[in-house]
Amino acid sequence: MVLQRQCLFSGRNKIPGYLPGKEVVMENWLSIAVAVYLIGMVLYGHYKGFIKLAVSAVALIITFATIHVAMPQVTKTILRFTVHLNRA
């Protein structure tokens, strides 16, 4: 008589209602929940960080564009209202 080994994860187990890995989940449900929560928070933080980075980049571009447009007028105004002292 030859004993056959039965693999728990092969699907050949004929126990009704058996789910592979169910024991692992039932014994470690808290660790799995904490891991899922941490991964979720890392992804959420990454997303929020991306939004902050994008807003900062847009603000920087708007600032440079405003300076580029306003600089000639500001320079003319400063030169017009500044008293020049001729030093000899």
Structure report:
This protein has helices at residues 22-27, 29-81. With 88 residues, it is mainly α. It is rod-shaped, with a radius of gyration of 34 Å. It starts with 21 loop residues before the first helix and ends in a 7-residue tail after the last helix.
The SSE order reads: HH
Percent helix, as a range, is: 55-70%
Output the number of helix runs. 2
**Spans of 5+ residues with little confidence (pLDDT < 50)?**
none
Class per helix and strand makeup: mainly alpha
State the separation between the terminal residues, measured CA to CA.
118 Å
What proportion of the residues form beta strands (DSSP E)? under 5%
- The Cα radius of gyration reads 34 Å
How would a crystallographer describe the biggest sheet? none
Q: Could you tell me the number of beta strands?
A: 0
Arithmetic mean pLDDT: 81
Shape: rod-shaped
Describe, in short, the structure shown.
The protein has 88 residues and is mostly helical. 67% of the residues lie in helices and 0% in strands.
